Amino acid sequence: MTAITSPAQVVPGRLEQMSTRIAFFIAGFGIAAWAPLVPYAKARAGLDEGTLGLLLLSLGVGSILAMPLAGVLATRFGCRRVLSGGTLLICLALPLLATVSTVPLLIAALFLFGAGLGTVDSTTNLQAVIVERASGKTMMSGFHGMFSLGGIVGAGGVSALLGLGISPLGAMAVVIVMLLAALFKAAPHLLTYGSESTGPAFAVPHGIVLFIGGMCFIVFLAEGAALDWSAVFLAQERGIDTAYAGLGYAAFALTMTIGRLTGDRIVRRLGATRVIVFGGLTAATGLFLATFAPSWEAALVGYALLGVGCSNIVPVLYTAVGKQTVMPESIAVPAITTLGYAGILAGPAVIGFVAHASSLSFAFGLMAVLLVAVAIGGKVLKV
């Protein structure tokens, strides 16, 4: 994506950088607050894995449909208005996710939630591109680290509130207050403009771009599995109390955050190829451990290893897209971004269907095999 700003627009500075970090925190916090609610929603509506997977697909559809629309709206109305609107959609959806018990209402609530998440995520990344370019420095890893930090606070905080005996609706009320407070802090310095692209918002990837996009899809699928299925797996297969089942995603998000905040140094030391190979193997090992170890404590270690392995693969793949010449960068980057988000948002629905046909353990084991394929792909890619 190539951003074009007019001379009349104020060049982003330190305050805009701060607001961008808060915006990433909002995105991570909002999506992670849902993870501990999944077992409650499943039990409240009496859902099996296949039906739950279908419901989660509506979240992905809402988000993916909202992403390109958010880019168009940000160009016309600015990042501030669109990001604020997306945050308000999240705040509207969360109480519904904590209370509704019928399938049609859950579908509508998840679609609304997904639309809010897609709007916030797309607009936040758009602002990040503009702010980073204006700074003349590499800042994207730190921005995305704030997303992961929001994930830790969201999953861990909501799990703690539920563990204290607070109802899901009460926990969501606390989440909404925090989201609105963060938005109030960030809003004055969110950009009042967006950017224009020299290429289409989406193009079908091919060649090396399709290869890279496929690897992104798998890594994001693993992240989506941790978000939407770890709590269900721990509660259903390992017997952990549903109030604490969100700790699986919290462990994943913690190590993902640490990995991202130290990622630039790691890539410089190991090289991009080794980061993909070692990362894929570490992630696969962690998911195998989380799935087949008999204790929930070992499963938490496994989810932590999954976060370590996945943390720096996607940033390296984005760098590789910038080096390829098969497709223009302004087209290739949106293409692999869409593939990636299809993995994190729509992919967990596939896991639900596989789990329904076999078992959740089999679905996770298959996911681990795909992560090994990412490691092999790193050797083939040679970035």
CATH class wording of the largest domain: Mainly Alpha
Number of domains: 2
Euclidean distance between termini CA atoms: 21 Å
Shape: globular
CATH topology of the largest domain: Growth Hormone, Chain: A
Work out the helix count: 15
- Runs in which pLDDT lies below 50 for 5 or more consecutive residues are 1-8
Number of strands: 0
Q: Report Rg.
A: 19 Å
Work out the strand percent: under 5%
CATH architecture of the largest domain: Up-down Bundle
- Sketch the topology as an H/E string, one letter per element: HHHHHHHHHHHHHHH
Largest sheet report: none
Keywords: Membrane, Transmembrane, Transmembrane helix
Main location: membrane
Subcellular location: Membrane
Membrane topology: Multi-pass membrane protein
Give an account of the 3D structure:
One of its GO terms (cellular component) is membrane. Residues 208-383 form the Major facilitator superfamily (MFS) profile domain. This is MFS transporter. GO terms for molecular function: transmembrane transporter activity. This protein has 383 residues and is an all-alpha fold. The protein folds into two domains: 11-195, Growth Hormone, Chain: A (Up-down Bundle), CATH 1.20.1250; 197-383, Growth Hormone, Chain: A, CATH 1.20.1250.20. The chain has 15 helices and no strands. Helix 6 (140-163) runs antiparallel to helix 7 (168-186) and helix 14 packs antiparallel against helix 15. Residues 1-8 have low confidence and may be disordered.
